[in-house]
Design brief:
4-stranded mixed sheet; 179 residues; alpha+beta; 4 strands
């Protein structure tokens, strides 16, 4: 990919980067950025928040394994090619890329009538704090194992409290009745 009037190339994006925080929803770009970062020896912190779920994943700059081991080579190459995907295919591939936790989050989100890609403010906030924790570990030189994932459960608790508060204020019930 090259720089144009409206876009920059991945190389321009990564120029002078010490670390990449990756939270892009475009599956093809997710792969291309991670591949190029690995070629350049740049570590990547992938931040995923879906519904109430939060997962932060660390890929060291010298990582040699599969970038997304949960996805088949055929599907990886299909995504990488930029071939259009249906929402069902994109959802399936995203679950394979991020890991099994997302399947649970997807089911939970759909029960609440939200689309799969939606996220709660609590999950977004929790993922940022967890990513900052991982960054601090990296900056101070703490050994972080390759493909280490950090799953944050606080978002789910915060979201439940918010739901109960909404029920309480919306219906003027006592908190005990709302719970």
């Amino acid at each position: 990919l090259e720089d144009t009037e409206d876009t920059i190339s991945i190389d321009t994006f990564l120029k002078d980067a010490d670390i990449v925080f990756e939270e892009i929803d475009n599956l093809q770009m997710k792969i291309l950025i991670r591949e190029r970062a690995r070629e350049l020896g740049i570590p990547v912190i992938m931040i995923t928040d879906v519904g109430m779920g939060t997962k932060v994943h660390f890929q060291p700059g010298d990582y040699k394994g599969n970038i997304f081991p949960g996805i088949s080579r055929k599907n990886y190459n299909r995504i990488r090619s930029g071939e259009p995907l249906s929402l069902e295919e994109a959802t399936k591939f995203a679950i394979e890329m991020v890991g099994p936790e997302v399947k649970y989050w997807k089911d939970d989100v759909e029960k609440k009538g939200r689309p799969f890609w939606s996220q709660t403010a609590a999950a977004a906030d929790a993922s940022k704090s967890k990513a900052a924790d991982v960054l601090v570990k990296w900056v101070i030189g703490e050994k972080i194992p390759a493909r280490k994932s950090f799953v944050e459960k606080k978002a789910r608790k915060v979201d439940r409290v918010k739901e109960r508060a909404t029920i309480f204020w919306g219906s003027r019930k006592t908190y005990k009745e709302a719970a």
